[in-house]
From TrEMBL:
Plays a role in the regulation of diverse cellular processes such as ribosome biogenesis, chromatin remodeling or protein chaperoning. Modulates the histone chaperone function and the RNA-binding activity of nucleolar phosphoprotein B23/NPM. Efficiently mediates chromatin remodeling when included in a pentamer containing NPM3 and NPM. The keyword Iron does not apply. Residues 7-105 form the Nucleoplasmin core domain. Belongs to the nucleoplasmin family. Gene3D superfamilies: Nucleoplasmin core domain. It comes from Rostratula benghalensis (greater painted-snipe). It is found in: Nucleus, Nucleolus. Residues 114-123 have a biased composition (Acidic residues). Keywords: Acetylation, Chaperone, Methylation, Nucleus, Phosphoprotein. Residues 114-137 are annotated as: Disordered. This is Nucleoplasmin-3. One of its GO terms (biological process) is chromatin remodeling. It comes from the Eukaryota.
Length: 137
């Protein structure tokens, strides 16, 4: 099931927000960012939002995901950019306010049947496709 991520607002006084999933349950959590936008009260300055997470060596890394400016790009669609919690959003430059919203997907690790169904449907799709014929000269 998916749950609407309540979102967060980054400002000059609240420069970061950390999203953490419940680690006690036996589920996989995925946070998908949909939109990052400037909200009322924003000034015409560069507002850089970065995602702070951990890489494969468990070292903290920060990656900019949005550079918003009121006069040219006040909103950015991230098309459900997927992140693995815990993840921190940080206003690296600017004073905001910048609002982030998206989805929180919770998948039970015990229920892997959907993966098997996906494999079968891919095989069926390959069988139904007609062979590609060479172009006539």
């Amino acid at each position: 099931p998916d749950v609407l991520f309540p979102g967060c607002e980054l400002t000059a006084t609240t420069k970061s927000y950390t999203f953490q999933a419940d680690e006690e349950d036996d589920s996989e959590h995925i946070l998908a960012l949909s939109v990052v936008c400037l909200t009322e009260g924003a000034r015409d300055e560069c507002n850089v939002v970065e995602v702070v997470g951990r890489n494969h060596e468990n070292k903290e890394i920060a990656v900019p995901v949005a550079n918003l400016r009121l006069s040219c790009q006040p909103l950015l669609s991230l098309d459900n950019f997927k992140l693995q919690p815990p993840v921190t959003f940080r206003l690296a430059a600017g004073s905001g306010p910048v609002y982030l919203t998206g989805w929180h997907w919770i998948v039970n690790r015990e229920d892997a049947s959907f993966e098997e169904d996906d494999d079968l449907s891919e095989e069926e799709d390959r069988k139904e496709l007609a062979p590609i014929m060479p172009a006539k000269k």
